[in-house]
Amino acid sequence: MLLHLSSSSSSTSLPSSTVLDPLFLYIDEHQNEFVQRLREWVAVKSDSNDHTLWGEIHKILNMTANRIQEMGGQVEFADIGTQKLSNGESVALPPVLLAQFERDPNKPTLCIYGHVDVQPAKKEDGWSTDPYSLTEINGNLYGRGATDNKGPVLAWLHALETYKASKQEVPVNLKFVIEGMEEVGSDGLDELTRQRNESFFSDVDYIVISDNVWVSKRPALTYGTRGSSYFFVEVEGPKLDLHSGVFGGSVHEPMTDVITLLGSLLDHTGKILVPGIYESVAPLTEEERKLYKDIHFDMEEMKNNIGVKSFLQDNKEEILMSRWRYPSLSIHGIEGAFSDPGSKTVIPRRVIGKFSLRQVPNMDPAVVERQVKEHLQEVFAKQKSPNNLKVMATVGAKPWVANLNNPEYIAGRKAVKVVFGVEPELIREGSTIPIANNFQEVTGKRVMMLPIGGHDDGEHSQNEKISRYNFIQGTKLFVAFFYELSKLQKDQ
Ligand SMILES: C[C@H](N)C(=O)N[C@@H](Cc1c[nH]cn1)C(=O)O
Ligand SMILES: [Zn+2]
Ligand SMILES: [Zn+2]
Fold first, then answer.
1. Which residue in 61, 88, 264, 312 could disulfide with 270, CB within 3.0 to 4.6 Å?
2. Angle, helix 468-487 to helix 16-29, in steps of 10 degrees
3. Catalytic center at which residues (predicted)?
């Protein structure tokens, strides 16, 4: 058990408003500069899905490092090895940025994780504005990465800047882990965490992540995320694409095989048809069921926001449970299939179906991978196709859950109350932060999630945004969180 005693000069002995009000004022007065910095960050096309853009990831990591150094931090770019591309070529992965500031043994040490890579985005995908030019419309800041995750990473840096510029002692020791490969599964970061467990992570008391969104207009604390495995199902047949008029009806078409395989994965209710997949799903407890009742989630508003007529479930609790505490499978695409405008009439020789399976406590990605592969091989065998089938899995991220009674969550609740004047919603998250569970398992340190993104931010979608309100109030939340964390007397 660690005891963190407040130093006598520390601001934690003063009433919270005396400490925080001037800091909040600084944030309000400097908000245009903060938005401008977000504009500069969004302009960097740091899409980790496209290795030809990894130079942009280096660029944004350098910008992050420069900002940290300007505030007195020490930075290191940690090498995380190479990745093999589909053409067999090996390329160096962008490094992970590790940063720390001078340490005071009387203060708790908070390690902040975030990522500065983004999902792909093109104007022609249907964006209303250029995805890489941050555009403010009606109080919303539109741009790829605005909420996922450049805005929140900057908000942490702005929170630190606020203390420093206001000449107030930062009440916690800070460390940063900033990566550029989260959107493709955080390759190499788990190994780095293992390597640095006895050094960089040894004096860390808490790890905090702000890389998800609220579920309503109310602020939230997140206590769980789903895990994920990403699958590639490849079928290869003839040695060339073929004329469908000449060969159609006489050959086993790879596309037909892939569509049959993809079609065998789930039914029209969203139920996953892979045998055994639900076997280890953690049972729903009464205590957990109660948490869902109090959550504010407006089904009609969400339907309007995303433009659907109905959900697969018809009440709030079931929708949220399906998103957060049950597995789901989504089909993402078929590589090699004809997808341009026009009416080309070929039979593609090789196609790759892509899908992912989100996993929940107590599922194990290794078991899921075996179950999925066995299922696909069985279905394929029934097709009696002479084509070649290959199934590959990547990501393999475990789900993560935390205990809401942990002291860092108490500090988070207080910080939310101070900034927003309400109690936070206690939520889980359907998407995946691949490193969350690893951090917890490898370092033994507790992980907490403190989101600042809005429920309608549209991460990964066209017109992703963060509102100016969330970006600025979120910065205040982080300032208040540092303060509340420093007031905790015990780390148990
Ligand atoms: C929640 C986070 N902002 C995010 O978007 N994570 C990605 C991580 C991932 C999973 N598979 C590959 N990358 C996500 O949930 O899709
Ligand atoms: Zn993210
Ligand atoms: Zn993302």
1. 312
2. 150
3. 117, 182
CB atoms within 10 A of CB 249: 8
Residues written for the chain = 492
Whether 291 maps to a domain, the answer reads no
* 228 pocket-lining for ligand 1 (C-beta < 6 Å): yes
Q: Which amino acid is at 485?
A: L
Q: Domain check: are 47 and 117 in the same one? A: yes
User: Quick one: DSSP state of residue 443?
Assistant: I
Q: Which residues contact 454 (CB under 8 A, 6 or more apart)?
A: 147, 213, 214, 217, 466, 467, 470
Whether residue 84 sits in one domain with residue 35 = yes
Number of H helices, E strands in the chain: 14, 22
CA distance 110 to 412: 13
Residue 340: what residue type? D
CB-based contact 85:91 (threshold 8 Å)? yes
- Domain of 254 in residue numbering reads as 227-282+325-397
CA distance 5 to 319: 44
Query: Which of 47, 181, 433 maximizes ligand 1 atoms within 8 Å of its Cβ, making it the mutation to test the pocket?
Result: 433
Instruction: Tell which of 397, 415, 448 closes a domain.
Output: 397
Give per-residue pLDDT as tens, 240-294: 999 999 999 999 999 999 999 999 999 999 999 999 999 999 999 998 899 899 8
Q: What is the DSSP letter of 181?
A: -
Distance, in Å, from the CA atom of 365 to the CA atom of 357, rounded to the nearest integer, reads 9
Q: How many domains does the chain have?
A: 2
pLDDT at 399: 98
| Three-class DSSP category at 215 | coil
For residue 247, how far is its CA from the centre of ligand 3 (angstroms)?
42
ipTM surpasses cut 0.95: yes
In degrees and rounded to multiples of 5, residue 274 shows phi and psi of -75, 120
